[in-house]
Amino acid sequence: MPLTNLDLQLDPFSKIPLGRQLTDKLRRAIIEEQIASGSVLPSIRTLATKLNVSRSTVMRCYEELAGQGYISITPGSNTSVCKRMPGELEKKHSPLELEPNENFTPPALSHYAEKLLFAAREAPAQSKFFLNYGGPPLDTAPVDRWRELIGIHIKKKQSPHCSSAGYLPLRKVYSDYLSRTRAIRCDISQVFVFTARELRLDLLCRLLLEPGDAVAVENPGYPGARQRFAVHGAKIVPIPVDYQGLDTDYLANLKEDIKMVYLTPSHHEPTGVVMPASRRKKLLSWAESRGAIIVEDDYDSEFRYDSRPIASLMSMDESDSVVHISCLWKTLSPVSKLGFMIVPKRLSHILACAKALVERETPPLETLVLTDFIKTGNLERIISKNRKIYESRRSSLVNALKTAFAEKITMSSESAGMDLFVRLDCPLLEIEILKMAQKAELPIVSAAPYYVDTPPGKEFIIPFSEIPEQVVEEKVKNWVKLLQM
Amino acid sequence: MNFLLNLEYLPRLPLNKRLSKALRKAIEEGRLRPGDALPSTRDLATNLKISRSTILSAMEELVEEGLIIALPGSGYYVKETDIVEDFQPSLNSEFTKPLRLSEFAKRVRDVHAEMQTRWLEKLPDINYGTIPSTLTPHKEWERMMRRYCRATDIDTLTPTIQPFGYPPLREAVAAYLHRARAVKCDNRQVAIFSSKQLRLELITRILINPGDYVAFEEPAYAEAKYLLKAHGAIIRPVATDEQGLVVDELFKDATPVKMIYVTPSHQDPTGSVMSLERRKKLLHWAYKTGTIIIEDDYDCEYRYGKKSLPSLQALDEFDNVIYLASIWKSLSLVGFGFTVFPRRLADVAQMAKMEMEKYLPVAEQVALTDLINEGHLEKYLRKSQAKLALRRQEMILALAKYFKNRLSLFSEGAGTHLVVRFISTSENLVVETAKVAGISIMSTASYYEESPRQGEFMLPFACYQNAEVDTRVKKWADELKKRLAKHATN
């Protein structure tokens, strides 16, 4: 009997069921040729007695292995290991670096993939760094309420019927929410829900841009968007940002045919500047006269603390040229990361066609729960609750910084968003300043990646929403001490 | 409520008038509808930074106008009118500049037009792949989701998720595919996608330029071809027979094909299984020509009778196969798609995924990991295979009994539907009579790139209770005979 010297000892206390343990062990033994091919396996009864498990456990194990082609069961006769294994090759695990061969042509990647690889070589550290940055602190995320709703909806066993634009009731409640908070009035056909959030900007580029087309972006501005435009082969035209946001006069004086402008008017990333209404009007009339599309990224408009909220660009648009991108990331991450996009009427049909090819369903449970969450007012309650928390965290941080740095720090005056933009007057190098902050356990990142060209340096972003009031003063003090200022 | 009000700047108009004006506008525009509560005076005061007495006087004005009503102790509400008006967005519909669309957008439009004519109108409202819920682990799925909801440690609730998905899930999927289909890979090659279509979209993006040739089985799943056409690929159909794709045709043709899309375990839709010899030939051809093979194992879980052949991916020694799988047939609530990339493509695929989706739903991924690791998925597959084999047999017997030689059967032992060919019977008549008998049936016409095969249909068998099949098929055959007789007399 080949199995006598085999280690088939099962662990009765393991979380893995006995049957599964046995199947895995037997399969491994067969693959690793501890049991020779063609050899006869012990009968079900023998093995069951030996291992002290039920006969049905052994039987199921044999059946599974037979189903996968490792052993063959002949009724009324012996059970034996198959002569030829499924996927003969797995034991060899051939090395993948193949010998260069005259007959062998490696697969050529597409132009798109080559641009991706190029972009990754250009800025490898950056894209990794920004992967998880910017979500809400975990202590304010509505995890419990969310899970309660999952529990309720899983019982109903529904799967929502979606069109390619998304689940209709969700689009409805979300557009109502935008109408209340951002004064956006739109037709339901203009509202799109995306599970794959990055596809929003990506599909927009695909539908509107050819390689070489010019896209205007804020400088400094969100690097993720720039990267997306770059991999589509767009020509990036940086537009300076002043105390009123994107410089519209500079934009209007450009000779180039700008097809698209991407900006964050409600709360400029990273400086926090808000674009005033007069400039918004200028931008809109410029877009109308040029036939350009404006992409308004309204990424954290829900958090404003001292000033009156400003209507979104889209709500002021009369020429059907504004795309409004938003998500509830800043409130609901990590429980929900669905993205939303409101597009001009003349774009909605073609976008629906394009999206139908790549994403038709949204995850059923998340869709139902989010619809419920907005409809019952949970969303707005949690936002106003968190707004208070963040406002107080912001003012504690501002006070601590003021006391510690005095006139050696400049801070953005806009009281909005979840992070603070600061400029330091400090003799140390930027990298050293960052290191000291890390030592003082103060979350802080450099604003340098936001610039298209050489950054002015020593500009930082501090996510105040993550720092509780009780500890902020001490952390800032430690930081200053380390900086020897 | 976080209601946004825009107070227009109007010189010489007092603040309370400006506020009432803004509220009136919001009501007229339909942002506040009859019966809606107005934002509370306290909220307005904080948000707009104006005093509550100013707000109250603005409210008074609107109450006097009859636009809103005050409910003591509750707040202000927009007055309900008898006329229910449909909310119409007020948008300027005359546009001076037409939208400038890209070449891609134009192709999407063409493809959409093709879909409208060829596919959508012929698609009856049936779901030809669903397994009855008694044979699927829906209960276990619910239990796993509940477990997620009860978990208390923060790591389970908010795990780090990479662009390719939750690492333990990728591990579980790799192990499952290895057990079930002998797929050999390590976790780094496995990617989870939130939707099945995204898999092919990503592959196309990283491999195909407009004008490249992509080979498809003839017939093949139409939607996959539409996606490639939208990217500007040229479809090259390759014939299939009882042994699946006719590989020799590939050797004869000199067209440089960039990629080939195949369904070797169960040809979609005809159901033929590619022979081992052809599999080896195909792999050899791909290696020689540098072609990437996409193996779509779309319903690999359901096999009957014959022992199955290992997947192409398992046989491939040259790192040329991209393997696609999903579990939507066994668990329709989970729409995830899985992909196993060749090692040399894994890195660039990950970069491309970052441009599409960096994050996937958390709860579903955690629950699915447990579902697979604890063996529930495979337990149900074993259970349902026996049941479905029986249902399939019943269907075949009933068809033979009642239709005799009016139709021929063409299907190997896999999947959840049979393919039948009616001999010299009008297609419309077949569809109509099937509908009368309560049998869902679908023409394979949309699967063909060139001329469709007359009288060929897909016939799902999984959805019937055992006893039902016989009576329904009998009714169908009787109805068809009746109609044919009628036609003859006419």
Judging from the principal axes of the Cα atoms, what is the shape of chain A? globular
Oligomer: heterodimer
The main pleated sheet of chain A reads as:
8 strands, mixed
Q: What would the principal axes of the Cα set say about the shape of chain B? A: globular
Indicate the radius of gyration of chain B in whole angstroms.
30 Å
Strand order of the largest sheet of chain B: 3-10-9-8-7-4-5-6
Q: How many beta strands in the DSSP annotation of chain B?
A: 14
Strand content bin of chain B: 5-15%
**Helix share of residues of chain B?**
40-55%
Q: Going across the major beta sheet of chain A, what is the strand order?
A: 6-13-12-11-10-7-8-9
- Which regions of chain A are unreliable across 5 or more consecutive residues at pLDDT < 50? 87-105, 124-132
**Cα separation of the termini of chain A:** 79 Å
- Mean of all residue-level pLDDT scores of chain A: 84
Overall pLDDT confidence of chain B: 84
- Please identify the structural class of chain A as seen in this structure: alpha+beta
**Rg of chain A to the nearest angstrom?**
30 Å
Question: What's this model, at a glance?
Answer:
The complex is a heterodimer of chains A (485) and B (490). Chain A has helices at residues 18-31, 44-51, 55-67, 111-122, 124-129, 143-156, 168-182, 199-208, 223-231, 248-252, 277-290, 313-316, 329-332, 345-358, 364-375, 378-405, 430-439, 469-483, and strands at 40-41, 71-73, 79-81, 162-163, 166-167, 191-194, 214-219, 235-242, 245-246, 258-263, 293-297, 322-327, 339-342, 409-411, 420-424, 445-446, 459-462.
Word description of this protein:
The complex is a heterodimer of chains A (485) and B (490). With 485 residues, chain A is of the alpha+beta class. Chain A contains 18 helices and 17 strands. The longest helix of chain A is centred in the C-terminal third of the chain and has 28 residues. In chain B, β8, α12 and β9 form a beta-alpha-beta unit. Chain B is an alpha/beta fold. An eight-stranded mixed β-sheet of chain B has the order 3-10-9-8-7-4-5-6, sandwiched between helices. Chain B has a four-stranded antiparallel β-sheet with strand order 11-12-14-13, covered by helices on one side. In chain B, strands 1-2 form a two-stranded antiparallel ribbon. At the A-B interface, α1, α3, α4, α6 and α7 of A face α4, α5, α8, α9 and α11 of B.
